[in-house]
Amino acid sequence: MPKERAAKPRKNAGSPPATAAEDQPGAVARTQSVGSLAQLPQRGHISHRGFVESITILPAQQAPMFAVSVVDRPAPPGGRRAAVPHLRLIFVGQRRVPGIWAGTRLRYEGMVAPIDGVPTIYNPRYEILPGRGSGAEPKPRPAA
Q1: More confident position, 47 or 14
Q2: Contact 102/116 with Cβ under 8 angstroms?
Q3: In terms of DSSP bridges, do strands 118-122 and 105-115 run parallel, antiparallel, or are they unpaired?
Q4: Cα maximum dimension of the chain
Q5: CA distances for 35 relative to 2, 107, 127, angstroms
Q6: Exposure string for 9-33, b = 16+ CB within 10 A, e = fewer
Q7: Which residue in 36, 37, 38, 19 sits closest to 27, CA to CA?
Q8: Would you say which domain of life the source belongs to (predicted)?
């Protein structure tokens, strides 16, 4: 019969200090509701509403990933005159997400972190909201 050994606490110098939520088993991290992307924290769990400004679909030869750029308000007719804060949502393993197109209004939440200098959330929890571009597939343009 094997002897049971007491578990030794491991030291990990690279780990950040534990927070109150991590000290309690089963504790859930707080979600910070963000009114504007200008108020976005560097890292953390956030909840926000915004508009899809653009989508990125990768070629079939690359691993499946669907990326969406989200802003606070849709662009006015004629486009934007200045840069605005934006956030990237990445759906790993998806070539497309039904109902999400440029102009779709979303409520989303997840862990935000800067990836290549852009605030990014991987596999966010999302809800398509009614409003401008509420998930309807774009209509094809007539040939000129």
Answers
A1: 47
A2: no
A3: antiparallel
A4: 82
A5: 57, 12, 17
A6: eeeeeeeeeeeeeeeeeeeeeeeee
A7: 19
A8: Bacteria
Q: Specify the DSSP element, H or E, that contains 22.
A: helix 20-23
Q: In this predicted model, which residue has the larger pLDDT, 22 or 73? A: 73
* The residue to which tokens 């440029």 are assigned: 102
In 3D space, the residue among 31, 118, 117, 111 whose CA is nearest the CA of residue 67 turns out to be 118
What topology is assigned to 28-129 in CATH? OB fold (Dihydrolipoamide Acetyltransferase, E2P) (2.40.50)
Q: What does the pLDDT look like over 95-118, one tens digit per residue?
A: 999 999 999 999 999 999 999 999
CA contacts within 13 A on the Cβ side of 29 = 15
Residue type, 47: S
Give the dihedral sign, CA 88/89/92/97: negative
**What tokens appear for 116 in the block?**
């290549």
| Residue with the two structure tokens 């007719």 | 77
pLDDT band at 131 (very low <50, low <70, confident <90, very high): confident
Average of per-residue pLDDT across 24-41: 75
Q: What does the block give as tokens for 35?
A: 């009114």
Q: Which two tokens stand for residue 30?
A: 């707080």
